[in-house]
Every structure is written in structure tokens, then in C-alpha cells.
Amino acid sequence: GLRVAKRLEEVGFSDIVRVRNRVLELRSTGEVIHAFHGGEPFFETPDAVKYAMMRALVENKTRYAPSSGIDPLRAALAKKLRAKNHLDANVEDVLITSGGAHALYSAFQAVLDPGDDVLLFSPFWTPIREMINGALARPLLVPTASARRNGLSATLEKMASPHTRAIYYNTPQNPAGIVFSREEAEEVAAFARERDLIVIADEAYEDLVYDGEHFSIGSLPGMAERTISTYTFSKSFGMTGWRLGYLTAKEPFITGLRKLVLYSVNGVSTPSQWAALEALSLPESYFEQRRVEYKERRDLLVAGLNDLGLECELPQGAFYAFPRVQSIHKQSRKAAEILLEQAHVATIPGTVFGAQGEGHLRFGYGISMDAITSGLEALRRFLGR
Ligand code: PLP
After folding, report:
1. How far, in Å, is the centroid of ligand 1 from the Cα of 204?
2. Would the CB of 187 count as within 6 Å of ligand 1?
3. Is the CB of 245 under 6 A from ligand 1?
4. Is the N end or the C end of the chain the one with fewer CB atoms within 10 Å?
């Protein structure tokens, strides 16, 4: 009959869209909205990358490229993955995707069969749950905070089922800005090796760590063959709209992944790939500058929230703060609604990121210092403090 495939019936839309639409609606009536609901960098695509795009167009780099990506970009990424992530990556192990989302979607499609289970640290980036559902697999939620207190291996051991096939491992993490330590990566890796599991590593925020260092789980012994590591140009380079990402994996996964890209998009936009090469030649000082700017924003926002009695741990990476907001309302969905409607402060309810986010709101701080200051002012007026 006239129905979509069963696997799509399992998939939902994100409630983030609902917040975004309500913000647009309020703005169209002339209201000023303090926008902490987004997940985009505050800076624009570097000029060097924009000019490289223009050059690529003028030079007619506008035809089909190899579906796995142009060789110079794959080679440059392999080099980056070796130097920066300490991964054992060669040109043939790299696949260009349409953003990190497409890399992750492909990864789940490449490894999951119906009935498989995936260990998913919660709270999590919402689309991951839907990608797992869409593969007719089941997410097994691992409460991150208590797992970190009680030991990751013990908790993973407890949550895993006989059908567990993969672990989604996101660091720096969205929505709470958690950065897993090298020791934690070693624990997760040991568990994956022992149970013969695949790790899908999401390193979208690798360049945005303010305390400590980013560590790639795929660089640990025995992990190269069982890790699909995914990356994006979105967050490091202010290129969210370009839809450029990549992944690295070994056989048999990389061949499976190449087929998925071949028969879905048949390769990512050719001129964009040439432009992306330019992003990879930015100096280390570029990343350092971004980190300084983000850290400034983080410190301003988190100090302000704590001042207002919205208890907030210091996120170590990415660009989100995840304070407790029970003093506004017990339910985070209601708290977000109250703040948006009454204080014109837009946030995302913690429960959007899984039940473990209850009692929290996500504040994105990829916005200007002035916007953070005036948002905190609006909160202060509303809370009467
Ligand atoms: N992974 C995480 C944790 C994210 O938060 C995002 C974007 O918000 C992505 C991956 C993918 O981003 P994109 O598809 O823009 O590369």
C-alpha cells in the first residue's frame, strides 16, 4: 500500500526544529531573541577557502570527481589523520562525505544489521539515535555521568547485550561539552576489543578542546581495524553550509562505505573539495585563535549561569553548556518554553538529547560575546536576581 518503508517509520524528526521555528515566528513579530539554541561557529568560512572555491570554479573543476573524493584531498587528509590524530591512515582509507552527518549515517548503515544493538552514551547528539533506528537497530543508552563516576568498563559491561555490535564514541561531546580522557578511551577500546565490537568515533569537535587534549580512540593498539573515525569541516572552519566531512576506516568497512557513497551521492561537490584543500593548509595558529575565542565565550557564559544559580559544570570542549535548570522548572521541556516565551532566551531542552538530559538545558555559545552578555542580562531580569 501507500506507506513508507518500515525502517523509516522508526525514524523521528528532531525537536530542535520546533525551537528553531518558534524563534523565527517570534522574530517575525519584531521580538529580539537571545539565541543560545544553535550549534554553529560564530565565525565565517576563512577567506582563503572562499577564494579557493572561486578559483576552482573559474578553472572548471566542476565535473564528476571520483566518488570517494579527489586524490589530493584524500592524500592531504590521510596526512592530517596521521600527524594530528595519530591514526594509521593511507589515501585509500579516506572517504569524503557530505558533512559529518553523512559520514555517521554511512557508518551505521555500513555495520548494522536489523536487530543489532549500539551502545550510545547519553545524553547524545539526537540524530545518532535516529540513524540507529533507521538501520532497524536499537540504541542501548549508557548514562554518561554515572558511567564516568562508576567506571566506563563496568557500565558498558552492564548495558551491553548479546546483540551489541558497535559503540558510538563522541568526544568532544555534544550536548554537555564532555571530553573523554585518554584513559577513558583506553577503557572503551579494551571493552571493544574484548567483545569484538566496532567503534564509530565522532570527532566533529576535535579542534575545540579548552582543557586537556583531544585523543582519537582509533589510534590505540588493535583499534584501527575496528574503528570508523568521522570528521567534519563544519565546526573547525566555520563551514556548516558547505556540507563537507570525511571518515577513515580499514577493510572490509571502507569498501562498504565507498559503495554507500557511490550509490547515494556519487561523490561530494567537486569544487568544494578543491576549496577544502585550502582549509587544510591553515596554520596551527588559526586553530589556536579559535580556541582562545571560544574559551572566552565559554568562561563568560558558564560564570554567568552559575551566578544566576543555574548550576553548570565547566564544559571542556565543543561549544555547549549544559546547566541544571530545575529552579526554573522540573521538566527541561517546560523550562525551555518558559525561557523562550517569557525571557526570549532560546535554548534546547536537555531531554532532546535523551532522558539523561532531563533537568538540563543546552546553551550553545557559538555566538558573539555581546550576544552572550545580553542573553545573560535577559536571564538576570527574568529570574529577578
Ligand atoms: N557530530 C556531532 C556531535 C555534531 O554536533 C554535529 C553537528 O552538529 C555533527 C557530528 C555533524 O555536523 P555536520 O554534518 O555539519 O558535519
Report:
1. 6
2. no
3. yes
4. N
Predicted TM-score (pTM) of this structure: 0.97
- Integer angstrom CA distances of residue 367 from 27, 300, 375: 17, 12, 11
- Looking from the CA of residue 104, the nearest atom of ligand 1 is 10
Whole-number Å distance between alpha carbons of 79 and 71: 12
ipTM: 0.99
Q: How far is the CA of 212 from the centre of ligand 1 (A)?
A: 21
**What cell does 222 get?**
588493535
What one-letter code names the amino acid at 254? I
Summarised one tens digit per residue, pLDDT across range 118-170 is 999 999 999 999 999 999 999 999 999 999 999 999 999 999 999 999 999 99
Domains in the chain and their CATH numbers?
Answer: 6-44+285-383 (3.90.1150.10), 63-280 (3.40.640.10)
